[in-house]
Design goal:
single chain, mainly alpha, 72% helix, flat
Length: 90
């Protein structure tokens, strides 16, 4: 079995670190009562979408988004999920 070693300064690694930090922050905010579970679920769906995209593009690191670009996309997608959920609840 061949293992691929990821350079810790690579964009791929930076994205993984950013996702981990963001998910930890969401958990802390949820525990503190600062956000709702629905808010977290919207973000988890958006992160799942982004992780699928990252997986598809991982072989070409130059095509990966920066952590900030990923966060902006996650925010847009999570807002879209929240809007759709609110519409469905009406």
């Amino acid at each position: 079995m061949r293992m691929t070693i990821i350079n810790p300064t690579s964009r791929f690694s930076a994205l993984l670190h950013a996702i981990g930090a963001d998910l930890t922050t969401l958990a802390q905010q949820l525990d503190a009562g600062e956000i709702t579970q629905a808010h977290v679920e919207d973000h988890l769906r958006a992160y799942s979408d982004q992780m699928d995209e990252i997986e598809l593009r991982a072989e070409e690191p130059d095509t990966l988004p920066t952590p900030e670009e990923m966060r902006q996309q996650v925010t847009r997608e999570a807002q879209g999920y929240a809007t759709a959920r609110a519409r469905d609840e009406d």
